[in-house]
Amino acid sequence: MSAPTTTSPPETAAPAKPVRQLGDRIFAGSATAAGVLILVVLAGVAAFLIVQAIPAFIAPSADLPGGRNIFLYIGPLIFGTLLSAVIALVIATPLGVSVALFITHYAPRRLAQGLGYVIDLLAAVPSIVYGLWGVAVLAPASLGFMTWLNTYLGWLPFFAGPVSATGRTMFVVGVTLAVMILPIITAVSREVFLQTPKLHEEAALALGATRWEMIRMAVLPFGRSGIISGAMLGLGRALGETMAVAIILSGSGIITFNLISSANPSSIAANIALQFPDSTGVAVNVLIASGLVLFVITLLVNSLARWIINRRSEFSGAN
Amino acid sequence: MKTIRPSRARVAAVGVAATGALFLAGCGAANESGSGSTGSSGSATAAVSGTISGAGASTQQAATQAWVAGFNGANPDATINYDPSGSGAGRTQFIAGGVDWAGSDAYIKGDELTKANERCGGSIVEVPVYVSPIAVVYNLQGVDNLQLSPSTLAKIFDKKITTWNDPAIAADNPGVALPATPITTVNRSDKSGTTQNFADYLKGAAAADWSYEVSDTWPVQGGEAAQGTSGLVGAVKAGQGTIGYADESQAQGLGQVKIKVGDAYVAPTAEGAAKILEASQRVSDGGTNAFAFKLARNTTDSTAYPITLASYAIACTKYQDPAKAALVKSYLGYVVSAEGQQAAQKAAGSAPLSDALRQQITPAIEAIGSVA
Fold first, then answer.
1. Which of B85, B92, B186 sits opposite A277 (nearest CB)?
2. Less Cβ around it within 10 Å: N or C end of chain B?
3. CB contact (8 A) between residue A278 and residue B85
4. How much of chain B exceeds pLDDT 90, in percent?
5. What ipTM was estimated for this complex?
6. Which residue from A252, A274, A277 is facing B222, i.e. has the nearest CB?
């Protein structure tokens, strides 16, 4: 969409100045100030990250943690961040959409309402609680499943093993993150599915569609942008998730697609949380530089989501 | 230190003041608001007062809490802040003049030592205050009494030995049926003085099998990594065939490896840890008042336990402010005293300094004074 989206009253065409009262002016001023404040905060964060990251980029490799090039240091972290988020998304998106469809189109109204509350409650659980649950319950419980994956699907690089002895793997992190972002995806999808025009649905049913065909023809096309924006919101949370990953993951600075061994790439946010307390000098700058990278990645993901939603909205079936 | 027999009213006041001071100390180093404990018992002459701030090793945190509590009992008007920001950060802040003393898991040396002496306008005082054995913990079903030589231990943690029935392990454990379970080494995922001292031991006792540089970050990639001592112990407990390293006080309920020292295999004990300091050579780069020890990791004295963490307090011999000097002197004096060391043992499970060592280092603390 390249056309201007906001249309203020055309000032050139209105020679007579509208009457402006004090209340109007105060409200307009405060609204503008609030809008500007957001930009200032964002610019401030970006400026801080850039200024603090510069020393890390110009320092000689020997001074950096591990004596390696900064890109060799941050590279595995970027990989780990993206990998964990993608796993979470792959698990949570279909699940979240299914739950939303069940709530909006299958469940009896009373059950749907209760289920909706429970899903919203999941979103309110602090991430550190998910972390503790992941490391104390999910990790040991998934050992058997991971061994099974390794035995029967070991030819896939994802399950090459050797299987971790403790279960603190990328796979478990992905599942935990999926549980964490499930409520976001579900809530957004549910809201959008509920807004599907009744006429569309009834038209589909009248043409002899089954309920599943009706959902495929009317609900999903209409809700596509909602699903995507929900998934992207979830992705944003998964990318930035810190404590759960720091607690669960057995991470080191390597790049591997192997999801079930004890050697995993750590994620940017978790690595900052783990290393910051005892870091000094240029090591802090390196961590901030990795934070800058995460900032950029998150910005890109959000922009991409915006772009997809804008592009899709024309074909959503609502018009 | 003279003790005063307090009146009943004063006891109550002291209690209130001590609570206030504790509360302030609990607020962390950010709280610079002076002697907030509104001295109602200010008539005490022997007790010192004022505020000092320290920063550094988080290993000392639990012990420091006990020390501050104990010290405040006798000196209710004193406020001691300690920010467990890490050894490196503590030394940096000390050099920059931001804190009055630093806690460090490694003794100060080289460039940092020169700068620290400059900051003090003379020389530093450096004494070991917190000594603790590091246990090598493992979880292996059917093996209750594991013994390892330094070389085997280094190979295990370097992932050169990957199964428990390796001939090298069998040679250290004659007559023990070892399973073919794969070995999972567990290391810290955060920076840690425990890691640094464990790596230093491997380097010192098995240099041929440990080629990595000693730092507070674990050098071998691809092991099981866990956050904090509790995370590491949890990971060792959760897995089968796991081995890791943790402060001995936190390692209860797990198998502890006996390490070969000289001709015998030695289990981690507080006595052994205290002993290693006596057997170690003093590094006198820092002058007469710096008691830094290059721990004898390769000692052959089987009464000593060489995988030991020694954490230091670093202060100045001269402070501009006489009150500050008196407070630092008094506080560090309490820390190394038998009473202070026992408090640390109770709170943090450390090994109390031996009397011989205390006699050695006391003159260094006595040397603290003001410029005037």
1. B85
2. C
3. yes
4. 35
5. 0.75
6. A252
**DSSP annotation string for B280-305:** SEEE-TT-TTB-EEE--TT---TTS-
| Model pLDDT, residue B37 | 38
Confidence of residue B251 (pLDDT cuts 50, 70, 90): confident
**What is the per-residue pLDDT across B321-331, written as a single tens digit (0 to 9) for each?**
888 889 999 99
Q: Is the minimum CB–CB distance between A187 and chain B shorter than 8 Å?
A: no
Measured from the Cβ of residue A144, the count of other Cβ atoms closer than 10 Å reads: 11
Q: Using CB atoms and an 8 Å cut-off, which of residues 73-92 of chain B contact chain A?
A: 85-89, 92
Helix (H, G, I), strand (E, B) or coil at A303: helix
Tokens of B127: 């004494």
pLDDT along chain A (319 residues), means of 10: 49 62 90 95 94 88 76 90 94 94 90 88 90 92 91 88 87 94 92 90 91 90 88 90 90 87 90 84 88 92 82 55
DSSP SS3 for B302: coil
Q: What are the start-end ranges of the H helices in chain B?
A: 8-26, 61-74, 87-96, 110-120, 150-157, 167-172, 193-205, 228-238, 270-279, 322-336, 338-348, 355-366
Would you call B225 an interface residue with chain A, using a CB distance cutoff of 8 Å? yes
- Total Cβ atoms within 10 A of residue B141: 9
CA distance A186 to A93: 8
Residue at token pair 């920076």: B191
Side-chain-side CA neighbours of A292 within 13 Å: the count stands at 22
Q: Is B125 helix (H, G, I), strand (E, B) or coil?
A: strand
pLDDT tens, position by position, A112-169: 888 888 888 888 899 899 999 999 999 999 999 999 999 999 888 888 878 888 889 9
How many CB atoms are closer than 10 A to CB A230? 28
Q: Provide the token pair at A154.
A: 């070991």
Query: Token pair of A244, please?
Result: 């759960």
Q: Do B88 and A251 lie within an 8 Å CB cutoff?
A: no
CA distance, residue A311 to nearest chain B CA (Å): 43
C-alpha triplet A15, A21, A25: angle, nearest 5°: 90
Q: Does B234 touch chain A (CB under 8 A)?
A: yes
Which distant-in-sequence residues (6+ apart) come within 8 Å of A132 by Cβ? A247
B239 touches chain A (CB under 8 A): yes
Q: Which residues contact B113 (CB under 8 A, 6 or more apart)?
A: B124, B285, B286
Average pLDDT over chain B, rounded to whole?
83
Q: Do β-strands B184-188 and B281-283 pair in parallel, antiparallel, or remain unpaired? A: unpaired
Contact A278, B191 (CB under 8 A): yes
- pLDDT of amino acid B3: 45
Please indicate if any CB of chain A lies within 8 Å of the CB of B192: yes
Contact A278/B192, CB-based, under 8 Å?
Answer: yes
B323: its two tokens: 């009150």
In the prediction, which pLDDT does A312 show? 62
Q: Which residues contact B23 (CB under 8 A, 6 or more apart)?
A: none
Of B26-35, B183-192, B349-358, which range is least confident? B26-35
What is the pLDDT averaged over residues B176-183?
Answer: 91
CB within 8 Å: A165 and B241: yes
What span, in angstroms and rounded, lies between the C-alpha atoms of A237 and A117? 20
Nearest CA in chain A to B190: A274
- Look at residue A177 in the predicted model and tell me its pLDDT: 95
Cα(B262)–Cα(B146) distance, integer angstroms: 17
Domains of chain B: 23-130+281-291+312-370 (3.40.190.10), 134-275 (3.40.190.10)
Instruction: Give B290's DSSP letter.
Output: B
